[in-house]
Design brief:
Largest sheet: 5 strands, parallel
Low-confidence stretches: 9-16, 138-144
Number of strands: 7
Strand content: 15-25%
CATH class: Alpha Beta
Number of helices: 5
Radius of gyration: 14 Å
Mean pLDDT: 86
Strand order of the largest sheet: 2-1-3-6-7
Oligomer: single chain
CATH superfamily: Response regulator
Structural class: alpha/beta
Order of helices and strands: EHEHEEEHEHEH
Distance between the termini: 40 Å
């Protein structure tokens, strides 16, 4: 168990790949727990969770994850605002937005956001996270 009451599944990894360190940000505790459990079993190291922008900023600054997965709707707050604030940090993690709503509903806002991309909650998996990170890494390599 880590300091957030979540099981540490890094020993469960099926491959030699370095475990991605991840923070999950969502205002729904049930989703946070389910996503942490599911992604943890798939080899992603959930190092922290947050329920508000303030908690997320503090958590990310302290834990320095590789990726932050943030719900678009954070109660009265916005995952888009969180992405803007995180990506303006000198050592920002990649930010992936998620929602129960369709990507089409937010397409323009996602495109304008500094977030790496969007994964619907129903499709959230270690593979979908790694795919976005790999695509981003490949694009940066091509642009360099």
């Amino acid at each position: 168990m880590n300091d957030h009451g979540l099981a540490d599944h890094t020993d469960d990894m099926q491959s030699e790949e370095k475990a991605l360190r991840c923070v999950i940000v969502d205002d729904n505790p049930a989703f946070v727990h389910a996503a942490a459990h599911f992604l943890g079993h798939q080899g992603i190291d959930i190092v922290g969770v947050a329920f508000t922008i303030g908690e997320a900023l503090s958590c990310v600054r302290r834990l320095r994850p590789d990726v932050t997965i943030a719900d678009i709707h954070l109660g009265d707050e916005s995952g888009f605002e969180l992405a803007e604030r995180l990506c303006s940090e000198p050592t920002s993690p990649a930010v992936i937005l998620t929602s129960t709503h369709s990507e089409l509903e937010f397409a323009d806002m996602i495109a304008a956001s500094p977030a790496l991309g969007f994964v619907p909650k129903v499709d959230l998996s270690a593979d979908s996270v790694r795919r976005l990170l790999d695509d981003s890494s490949h694009e940066r390599h091509l642009l360099a």
